[in-house]
Write a structure and sequence with these properties.
The protein is α/β, with parallel strands linked by helices. It is built from 7 helices and 12 strands. This is Putative 4-hydroxy-4-methyl-2-oxoglutarate aldolase.
Length: 224
């Protein structure tokens, strides 16, 4: 099987029950619970009307500007899967547009992330199917390959493996490694509950802000 032009099976995926627990959590809280070290870069933004993206990763690595393997991934992916495409970050040619979106909606996929460009923004931005991309261009893609399906990929240093947990909202998206998903979910649930309590204290005017001056003094700030 030639490296760089191959299709592999996905052998694992986060459980549906865990996906639903993540769906209720903000991406920012998940990011904090992972020590703020995991991100796919600020260019990858939501292009859809709004709503949460949550599901197991179905990964694609493709030549920049080419979407042959993305078409194949859409045909292979299961309902709820999030197709994550490493297209090299190139914005010269769009990887998907309105027609491919319609196919993903018909197959009930969970969303798509593209480290590359989209087109037909007017149509994509008016519907709820989750689409994250690095940019927009009217120039269409090629369909010649090469590419790989269900291999580890990296988006701006964030490694994504097939079956990892993908979660996205208005702040962007994050990938949670398969082996760490349960631990991260529990930590995030606790953080989310703590922030709910803190918000109630802010609204009631009872929040303790003494930590600000204490931190400044500890760091040697003058005038505190």
């Amino acid at each position: 099987m030639p490296v760089g032009f191959r299709i592999l099976p996905r052998t694992r995926a986060v459980a549906p029950a865990l996906i639903e627990r993540f769906r209720k959590l903000p991406v920012a809280n998940v990011s904090d619970s992972m020590s703020r070290l995991f991100a796919a870069g600020p260019r990858l933004r939501p292009m859809h009307k709004g709503g949460v993206m949550a599901g197991p990763a179905f990964t694609v690595r493709t030549r920049p500007g080419d979407n042959l393997m993305v078409h194949k991934a859409i045909d292979m992916a299961e309902a709820g899967d999030v197709v994550v495409v490493d297209a090299g970050g190139d914005l010269t040619n769009a990887i998907i547009g309105e027609l491919m979106l319609a196919q993903m909606v018909r197959r009930k996929l969970g969303g798509i992330v593209i480290n590359g460009a989209i087109r037909d923004l007017g149509a994509l931005s008016q519907q709820p199917f989750p689409v994250y991309a690095a940019g927009v261009t009217h120039r269409g893609p090629y369909k010649d390959g090469p590419g790989e399906i269900n291999v580890p990929i990296s988006l701006d240093g964030m490694v994504i493996e097939p079956g990892d947990m993908i979660l996205g909202d208005e702040d962007g998206f994050v990938s949670i490694p398969f082996a760490d998903a349960e631990v991260v979910c529990k930590a995030t649930e606790a953080k989310h509950a703590a922030e709910g309590k803190q918000m109630a204290e802010i609204e009631a005017g009872t929040v303790d802000r003494a930590w600000v001056d204490a931190t400044l003094k500890r760091l040697g700030c003058e005038g505190v």
